[in-house]
C-alpha cells in the first residue's frame, strides 16, 4: 500500500494533473509552471500532509517499517517530524489557491525531499520501503530543483 500511494501521489497524480490542465483545459501555460504547480500540490502538499498525519498518529510505522528503528523512544522524534510535515503539507496544499506560494513551497520541499533522499542513500540497512522512499525522493528532488532553477532563470 505504501509503495502504491507513493507512486500515485509522487508521479501519477502530478503528471495526470499537468496533462489534464494542458490538454483538457487547453492551458496556455508553459510546462515548467505546471510542473511546479502540480508537483508542489501533490507531493509537497497532499503526500507530505498524509505522511505527517501518519507520523503523528502512527509514529511506529515510520520508525519501524521505513527507518527500521525498533526503539519506542523514537516515536517522539517521529511525531515531531510529523508536525513539520503537516505544516509543510498545508503550505503545499494552499498553493492551489495562492500561486505566489508555489516557489517558496517548492524550495522548502525540494530541500527537505532532497536531504531525506540523500540521507537514505547512506542508510546501511535499507529495506524495500526505505528504498522506494529514497528513489522517489531523489527523483522528485531533481524535478523540483529543475523547476526552482527554471523559475529563477525566467
**Main sheet: strands, sense, barrel:** none
Percentage of residues assigned to helices: over 70%
What class do helices, strands and sheet pairing give? mainly alpha
Which strand-content bin applies to the residues?
A: under 5%
The multimeric state of the shown protein is: single chain
How many beta-strand runs? 0
Tally of separate helices? 6
Query: Mean of residue pLDDT?
Result: 91
User: Can you tell me the residue ranges where pLDDT is under 50 for at least 5 consecutive residues?
Assistant: none
Compute the separation of the termini in Å. 39 Å
When the domains are counted, the total is 1
Order of helices and strands: HHHHHH
Shape: elongated
Radius of gyration: 16 Å
Topology:
Blueprint: H1 2-24, H2 31-57, H3 59-66, H4 74-94, H5 102-121, H6 128-153
Helix pairs in contact: 1-2, 1-6, 2-3, 2-4, 2-5, 2-6, 3-4, 5-6
Compact overview of the structure:
This protein has 154 residues and is mainly alpha-helical.
Polypeptide structure, described:
With 154 residues, the protein is mainly α. The protein has one domain. It has 6 helices and no strands. Helix 1 (2-24) packs parallel to helix 6 and helix 2 crosses helix 5. The protein is elongated, with a radius of gyration of 16 Å.
List keywords for this structure.
154 residues, mainly alpha
